[in-house]
Each structure stands twice: as C-alpha cells, then as structure tokens.
Specification:
The protein is an alpha+beta fold. Helix content is 49%, strand content 11%. The protein contains 15 helices and ten strands. It has helices spanning 26-38, 42-53, 90-102, 104-111, 117-125, 150-165, 168-173, 178-210, 214-219, 255-277, 292-302, 305-315, 319-341, 348-361, 415-426, and strands at residues 9-11, 60-63, 66-72, 78-84, 138-141, 370-372, 377-380, 385-389, 395-401, 404-407. Helix 2 crosses helix 6 (150-165), helix 11 (292-302) runs antiparallel to helix 12 and helix 11 packs across helix 13 (319-341). 30% of the residues are buried.
C-alpha cells in the first residue's frame, strides 16, 4: 500500500472471501446498498459478487473520484474496471472541516478507523454527503457495458472490505487523503483555540476586577445570563511527570507503574473533558462504572508486558486468561468482556430471529450447520467457529485457539455477519 501522504493509495489483491460477508461495518453496507440500488441488472451483481469471492479482483487503486482494478474472468480474460464517485467541492470540504473541529469526538473516531453514524449525520446537516447514494457509483469498464457489469460490481464488493478496515479510503475517494485531512483539522483547531484565548482572558480579568454582590446574584437568580463559553479543548492530554530521577524510589514503589497510571488518568480526564464539551452531552447516557476486575483488564489493554503481568497476579488470573480478556476488551470493552466470561439465557424471540437471519444469509447448500454450545452460544459443526450473543442483543464471533474459545472480531447486530467474520478468520 502506498503512503498516506499521497493522493493515491494502492491495496494489494485480497484473498478469496468464501464464507464471509463483504461488509461487516454499517458504512461498508451503506456502500454496497448504493451499488445494489444503482445497478439495473441483479444478475450482473450476483456474478460480480461471485468473482469477488473467488479472488478475481487484482490490486485496487484508490484516488480522488475514482477506484480502479483489473478483474479477471474465469477464462483468464482481464478487464480494467473503474468506478467513479464525485469529489466534494472546496466549499463542501470547508463545511466538513468546520463541523469536525467543532466536535472532537468525530476526529477521535476517524483516528480509531471508525465512522460513527452521528459523524455522517452531522456532515449531512452541514450539506456534505459522505456516503454514496443511488446513482452515485458510476461504472466504466473495458467490457463496454453501459450499466454495472460483473467486473465493476466485483470491484465495489472488494472495496467494501477495504472500507471496513479504513474509512479514510472513502474520504480519499471524496478528494482528501488522510495526511492532508488531519493536517487541515489540526490547523483549524489551533487557529480556533488561539482566536478564543484573548477573549477568555479579558472576561476573566473583568470578573476579577469588578466582582458581583451576593445579594444581587440571589435577586437575579431567575434572569441570570447563560454561563460563559467553556475553554477550548487542549490538543492532547497533558504529559505525566517523569519519575526516573537520580533518587531511588522508596521500597515497594514502582516508578514505571506510577508513570503509567498517571498517563492513564490524564488520558481518561481528556476523554471526559472532550465528551463534556461536545454538543448534546447532557443527553448522552453515563458509562457504567467498571468493576475492579474490568478496570484491571482495561489497564492491561494499554500496558506493557511487565505491568500486565502484575495485573494478572493482582487479579488472580493466569496470564493466558488475561490475554484473552484483553483481546475481548479491544473488540468491545466491558460488553465484550462479559460475553467472554459470562453465560446467560437470551429470550426465545431473540434466538428465533437469529435463526431466521442465519437461514436467509446463505444458500442451503453453503449454510453452516450450528449446534447449541451453551446458553446463547452456537458452535459451527465441522469448523472451530462459534457465535455468542451479549445481553444487548449483539452477536460476537469466536474461534478456537489452543483448545480455548477466543474473541475473533467486533460484535454485530446481524448474527450472520458475525458468523461470516468468524468463519473468515478461521479459514
């Protein structure tokens, strides 16, 4: 793959996708929906999906307004296929960047390779459509088909897999590479913070000089003006103090562990402040408080081997057990950890709905056979893959590693998509 500073990224050909869905994220599915709503011939889409599954799509080139790949037919004939997507105008990019700078959570989500629905909704409210809609994916192919042919369809199905991994692929198609986009966001963030600083200092000085009588405040309690604007969010969490000094620590004090805890506290405070400054935070549900065991896993997910070893000892876990818990945490936090460590009995209606979705996702000859493996757990017959359902109704893929069931990916509301991910991981 080429560097992210460039205006073009090239992705090596992906392996065949047998037994898995092409899009596991909601934005990847939105991309495929635009393709399926645009194409006039459903049979051509089926052929393209089959070619993509068989690995017929070569390296994919992504650049502003266009994706390109060579797609081979079963007889070995190669066709150059392109799909065009309109770039955003400079004015639209300005609106998008202003919107993103106003909402620090959007930038954090993109850096985590995620595209939450509220980011797309806020962009649409600013007049910027990020995801394609019906008619937006325009095909061009050497086979000279006037509509989406199997080759352009196969290319789109393959790109859905790339979008799952990195939403910056979509933003590049819309006209901005990752490095340029992040640089522009940083410039605007710094400029906005700098512009707001003198006003905040002036207001503070005025307040300290004049003051307000307490009886006047009480008398005007029902007509007080709104609170002043909060201070701007810093660019990053503050650096923890360095404890590596010439003076040896007191017996029993681990300076490296203290530095780690200080850095963790700063990062958590920064996230809390970013959430508090985001619009509509009053309506956001509070995160449940973690237990001591859950918090130990959270810390181990960000710690080095030495500290993780101490956390394993302190919580009475074997190191292999903690490693599995950390993997689950990376996939979905406390919810994923509970799916790994707890069993519970879901409602019969939820299980019946899951069976229906699983039956509809595969043709009968290719449908995986499942057997109950415990409360809310289904194991694939003949494959080391398993589905587990969480208390929130989401389904989690698992695979067996060294005799233990291990988390194999993030959750999905569709059990068929989660199972496809588990089967793809194993084979």
């Amino acid at each position: 793959m080429s560097g992210r500073d460039e205006k073009e990224r090239t992705f090596a050909a992906l392996p065949p996708a047998r037994g898995r869905g092409f899009a596991l994220t909601w934005w990847g599915r939105a991309w495929l929906k635009a393709l399926e709503d645009t194409a006039l011939d459903g049979e051509q889409l089926k052929k393209g999906r089959r070619q993509a599954r068989e690995g017929a799509v070569g390296a994919v080139s992504v650049r502003p307004g266009r994706i390109t790949a060579v797609v081979r037919d079963r007889d070995g004939t190669a066709q150059r296929s392109d799909v065009l997507l309109q770039e955003l105008s400079e004015e639209e990019w300005d609106r998008f960047l202003d919107m993103a700078v106003d909402r620090a959570g959007h930038i954090a989500a993109l850096l985590d390779r995620e595209m939450p629905p509220h980011l797309v909704e806020d962009a649409a409210a600013a007049g910027v459509e990020l995801l394609p809609g019906i008619g937006d994916l325009e095909p061009e192919c050497n086979c000279e088909a006037w509509d989406h042919c199997p080759h352009t369809a196969a290319l789109c199905y393959q790109v859905a897999r790339l979008l799952d991994q990195d939403p910056f692929v979509l933003l590049l198609m819309r006209g901005r590479g990752e490095r340029r986009l992040l640089d522009e966001l940083q410039i605007r963030s710094v400029a906005r913070a700098t512009a707001g600083a003198p006003e905040a200092e002036e207001a503070q000085e005025t307040q300290e000089t004049q003051g307000v009588r307490a009886d006047e405040v009480f008398a005007a309690r029902d007509i007080l003006p709104p609170l002043p604007a909060p201070p701007p969010l810093p660019g990053e969490p503050g650096a923890p103090p360095a404890l590596d000094t010439e003076t040896a620590p007191a017996p029993g004090i681990d300076s490296a562990a203290l530095e780690f805890l200080a850095a963790d506290a700063a990062a958590r405070a920064y996230r809390a402040l970013a959430d508090a400054l985001s619009p509509g935070h009053e309506q956001q549900p509070l995160e449940p408080e973690l237990t001591l065991d859950q918090d130990a896993v959270r810390l181990a997910a960000a710690a080095g081997p030495a500290i993780a070893g101490r956390l394993a000892t302190g919580t009475g876990r074997q190191r292999a057990e903690l490693d599995l818990a950390v993997r689950a945490w990376h996939y979905g936090g406390a919810a994923a950890l509970s799916v790994l460590e707890e069993e519970w009995t879901p409602e019969p209606e939820a299980l019946a709905r899951a069976r229906t979705l699983l039956a509809e996702a595969w043709e009968e000859a290719d449908r995986p056979q499942l057997r109950a493996g415990g409360s809310g757990r289904w194991t694939v017959v003949g494959a080391e893959a398993q589905l587990r359902v969480g208390r929130d109704g989401r389904w989690w893929p698992y695979r067996k590693e060294r005799g233990r069931w291990a988390p194999a990916g993030p959750a999905d509301h569709d059990p068929a998509a989660a199972l496809a991910g588990a089967l793809g991981e194993t084979g």
